[in-house]
Design brief:
- The chain contains 29 helices and 27 strands.
- With 976 residues, it is of the alpha/beta class.
- The structure holds a DNA duplex (13 and 13 nucleotides).
- Keywords: ATP-binding, Helicase, Hydrolase, Metal-binding, Nucleotide-binding, Nucleus, Zinc, Zinc-finger.
DNA sequence: ACCGCCGGGTGCC
DNA sequence: ACCGCCGGGTGCC
């Protein structure tokens, strides 16, 4: 079941097209990506050298510990200098001069990566040995060996002197290798069976009005434990005075603390949002509730404050009071304050319990150690300052600072801003950037708000769920940080219970100066649909890593799309030391695992297990399924083309075959990728409706004569690639293409991405996909022309098609049998959806439409309309496959019509999951329309074959093999 | 002695 | 560094 994740290639970007998808995958494995492809290197050998200058630096290393080698070309004493640092980045010393010359040469010319292990640790205060191993691409082996021997160093073949992961000394590493199949299975199951029966259940606080299901209580219990538990994390042991990491063999003086958070990777529909809401309300400081309903309050007031829709307009079904917190104006100033509504329970007594938040515990023990048990100067100061800056005097004090904070926070929450300030306010700089930067590691009582970051498409879902699950008489301050009018006041943001925002807003803020979100000290940051940040090169990912927070959570249904590399960003966000530094991740986890090392895999499994909770729809709690979803069945409906359609199709097919077979013969299939893609797309469009083709009739594959012709042709190809409604992946950023441009060699990229390539490579700039020469002046943009005219043209000269008829007869039959059943009609081609509107209208179906071009506001309206059970609400939703992918809930539908096969079966599944999820009452029936004797049939065949393939799993095949199988697929598609 | 040897000063890059 | 290297002092045994 899970194996289908493997073939999802681009995952959430839904690059449905085989050519696009795997081609860029193939490219990823080829280019000069040594640094980014740590798993592709081979070991050239190793040699013994020495580290000098130890006495000048503080970095310590143990026997067997790994060290990193960092070039220092700016070193004033030697431009060849190579610095040696330990796992935590502290400098240990330098590589001895003569050896540094060699390393500098190898490193600067990118001939090999050099990794160091210290075999004996520090034996004197001046120098020590280091074993250097050289990793690189096979074609560089000779050069490296020559460099080494010409400087009369001796390269030992193999990893002699390499330390074993178990710490045994200086023996050749005996790694147990796994077969590709074992590896694939292990990887597939990496996120399975993580359910530890030992985790208990925990009820949510009263403020949560929806009863949690057993598995949700388990998740809550687990999440609270993750946030509160102070036990040593995995791979750490106490060794005398120090703490010792068994993987890197490093030790540190300060007690390493467990990641305060983790990955909640439950399947879609198991209630990750609800569980997270429960967590936020149930586990504030010291494991106490955030706030509770006032029990004595006779009439609960429905007031969910500081809340607005993305568009600033109140949603229709929104029962709670919706108020916009105006910029620069604190909601605390509202007149109808009812301070008693919020009771923030946070007792200081907890400080003395066993399980407390680390910061406080550390503080207590620190004070004791200093023999000042009741002191706590530093703490008291911060607290006072916090109180002071809020202009709030607090007189009651039970025990030290904590109670002050509590009252202070309660006051802040309930809006007692006009209390009598005894000292003058220091302005709104409650959180100064300096404080923020310096308070990373310690527990921070000022951190109070939870920041939720999600894709725009699920923002409204969070608001709905908060309404639904939080008791109306709980006054929860939720601020939607979105839109140009958003309140950027950090004091205001810090004082919220929750702040909701999107990845885009976050990265937009980040790119500016003084990002408010990066200034606030958060209690908790939650990344919803966290796999969005799997590519570490994106602005979003960089922005996310820079957030200042105590606790970190990732919510995702698909923790790994198809590669181990996807995991790194998640690990980095969680600050899973030391793997948040790429080198250690690569050396300890990624390369060993990719090369089939059993120990590496075990380490990876342990690592994942200690931060992840994942249950699937088929998981069981105490022998019972988590949730009982209705059945779901798939039937394939074969569609026969009419005589006329068949003739048209065959004409196009023959033409396409001729072109492609020529490319195959020439071995230029991949170079002519855009043409091949165009042919395939055209055939797929023919299968749906001839009107999909638009004016893309130009003959492909003929060399253009004039620049104008070439330009026209490129624009046409660009339109083909983009206009299908399927998503395109940029081979540079590996994300959906934004601001698309097409190169003269007919490859599509984001303009900024390819511009950067050209800028950095200058005259030698080459197309990342085909290595053809590219110039900035030759990039062609999509002209913003009048598509409307074409659209109306489409509708005026209306004709039906076999597939349209097949759908219509199904829908009509369905309506006559049961007119309460709602359907999703899904296509990758948005134009097809437009075409389908005509017969639907003709037959008097009420329908709505959801596609990627619609604004968020419109989407929310449409979904609400469709989900509503009011009489006269629509029976059908026309849905573009891409738009149907993420987060949305369409459980009102129980029939799905997949109009055209997608390349990525996972995309289809995701789409079906929109309705086959919690809340679905009926059995779900999925109908796939496949035109008999067409590319569609071949696509389905190849999909099935893919599912059976094993070796694709880890990307263990080398790039040329992958390219070959890609060509084979195209041949199979065209029956060549 | 335009050497060798001795012993003190010194020390990353 | 319980080294190596440098450079000054010194000089048969």
């Amino acid at each position: 079941m899970q194996s289908r994740r493997w073939f999802g290639g681009a995952g959430f970007s839904f690059a449905d097209d085989p050519v696009t998808e795997t081609l860029s995958q193939a490219i990823r494995g080829t280019g000069e990506e040594l640094d980014r492809e740590p798993d592709t290197g081979v070991l050239f050998g190793s040699l013994r050298g020495s580290v000098v200058g130890l006495r000048y630096y503080t970095g310590v290393v143990n026997k067997g510990e790994m060290v990193s080698l960092v070039r220092q070309p700016q070193n004033p004493y030697d431009r060849n200098a190579v610095m040696v640092a330990n796992v935590y980045g502290s400098q240990v010393g330098h590589i001895k001069r003569e050896l540094a010359v060699l390393l500098a040469n190898i490193m600067d010319n990118n001939l090999a990566r050099v990794e160091g292990v210290v075999p004996f640790g520090v034996t004197n205060q001046f120098t020590m040995s280091v074993v250097l191993s050289f990793w690189g691409r096979e074609e560089n082996r000779d050069a490296v060996v020559r460099q080494i021997t010409s400087r009369s160093f001796k390269l030992q073949s193999g990893p002699t002197g390499f330390m074993c992961a178990d710490g045994s000394r200086d023996l050749p590493r005996k790694s147990v290798l796994l077969t590709a199949e074992e590896l694939k299975n292990a990887f597939d199951n990496l996120f399975e069976n993580l359910m530890d029966d030992k985790i208990g259940e925990r009820e949510a606080v009263e403020a949560v009005c929806t009863p949690l299901l057993p598995h949700q209580k388990q998740a809550l219990s687990w999440m609270c434990a993750c946030e509160n538990n102070a036990a040593l994390p995995h791979f750490w042991e106490v060794k005398g005075e120090l703490f010792y990491n068994t993987l890197t063999h490093s030790s540190v003086r300060e007690r390493p603390r467990r990641v305060r958070g983790g990955i909640l990777a439950d399947d879609m529909g198991l209630g990750k949002t609800l569980t997270t809401i429960a967590l936020i309300l149930s586990n504030f400081h010291h494991g106490k509730p955030l706030c509770e309903p006032e029990k004595s309050s006779p009439e609960p007031k429905a007031s969910t404050t500081a809340r607005k829709n993305p568009e600033g307009k109140s949603g229709d079904g929104d029962q709670a009071e919706v108020s916009v917190a105006p910029a620069g104006h604190s909601p605390c100033m509202r007149a109808n304050q009812a301070e008693t509504q919020v009771v923030c329970v946070e007792s200081v007594d907890v400080v003395q319990e066993d399980v407390v938040e680390d910061g406080d515990k550390d503080w207590v023990s620190e004070k004791k150690a200093k023999g000042r048990p009741q002191g706590g100067k530093a703490k008291a100061t911060t607290t006072k300052k916090a109180a002071k800056t809020k202009g709030k005097a607090v007189s009651t004090s039970r025990k030290g600072g904590a109670v002050l904070e509590d009252l202070d926070f309660a006051a802040a929450l309930s809006g007692l801003t006009q209390g009598a300030p005894q000292k003058k306010s220091v302005g709104k700089s409650l959180v100064s950037p300096v404080e923020a930067a310096s308070s990373q590691s310690t527990d921070d009582p000022a951190a109070r708000a939870t920041l939720i970051i999600c894709p725009l498409s699920v923002l409204s879902n969070w608001l709905d769920q908060l309404d639904q699950h939080v008791r109306a008489d709980v006054k929860l301050n939720v601020y939607l940080y979105y839109g140009s009018e958003r309140n950027r006041d950090t004091h205001f943001l810090s004082s919220q219970h929750m702040v909701l925002t999107t990845y885009n807003v976050l990265s937009a803020d980040y790119s500016g100066s003084a990002s408010p979100l990066h200034t606030v000290r958060w209690l908790r940051v939650v990344l919803d649909e966290g796999h969005i940040i799997r590519n570490p090169n994106t602005q979003q990912s960089k922005a996310v890593l820079k957030l200042n927070t105590q606790r970190r959570w990732i919510l995702t249904g698909t923790p790994i799309q198809n590669n181990l590399r996807d995991l790194w960003m998640l690990v980095a966000f969680l600050r899973l030391k030391p793997f948040d530094v790429r080198e250690w991740w690569n050396r300890v986890i990624q390369r060993p695992v990719t090369q089939g090392d059993k120990t590496g895999l075990q380490n990876l499994q342990a690592l994942v297990k200690c931060v992840t909770l994942r249950r699937t729809k088929t998981s069981r709690v105490c022998g019972r399924p988590l949730v009982s979803l209705p059945e779901r069945s798939v039937r394939i409906e074969e569609v026969e083309l009419t005589q006329k359609e068949r003739e048209e199709y065959e004409l196009a097919r023959t033409e396409g075959r001729t072109t492609i077979s020529r490319y195959v013969a020439e071995g230029t299939v991949l170079r002519n990728y855009a043409d091949v893609l165009a042919i395939l797309v055209r055939l797929r469009q023919f299968c749906c409706h001839p009107g999909l083709l638009g004016k893309t009739t130009t003959h492909t594959g003929v060399v253009a004569v004039t620049p104008a012709e070439l330009r026209e042709r490129l624009i046409m190809k660009l339109r083909l690639v983009l206009g299908t409604g399927s998503d395109e992946e940029c081979a540079v950023c590996l994300d959906s293409v934004r601001l698309p441009v097409i190169t003269h060699c007919a490859h599509v990229y984001c303009r900024p991405c390819i511009a950067e390539v050209i800028r950095s490579e200058q005259e030698q700039a080459r197309c990342p996909l085909c290595r053809g020469q590219i110039k900035a002046s030759e990039l062609v943009e999509f002209p913003l022309e009048e598509e409307e005219e074409e659209e109306s043209n489409l509708l005026e000269n209306w004709r039906s098609s076999s597939k349209v008829e097949a759908l219509m007869s199904s829908l009509l039959r369905l309506r006559s049998e049961d007119d309460s059943i709602r359907s999703l009609v899904v296509s990758q081609f948005t134009r097809f959806l437009t075409i389908l509107e005509i017969p639907l209208r003709e037959e008097g179906f009420k329908f709505v439409r959801l596609d990627g071009t619609m604004s968020q506001k419109r989407r929310a309206q449409v979904i609400q309309e469709f989900q509503s059970d009011a009489p006269g609400s629509p029976l059908i939703m026309l849905l573009s496959l891409k738009a149907g992918g993420v987060g949305i809930n369409l459980s009102a539908a129980s029939r799905v019509f997949l109009m055209d096969p997608a390349w990525n079966p996972a995309a289809e599944d995701q789409c079906v999951d929109r309705c086959h999820r919690l809340g679905q009452k009926r059995d779900v029936v999925i109908t796939k329309f496949i035109v008999k004797g067409s590319v569609e049939e071949n696509m389905v065949k190849i999909q099935r074959q893919k599912q059976d393939l094993v070796e694709k799993a880890f990307g263990t095949k080398n790039p040329s093999e992958r390219k070959t199988s890609r060509v084979d697929e195209i041949r199979a598609l065209m029956e060549l």
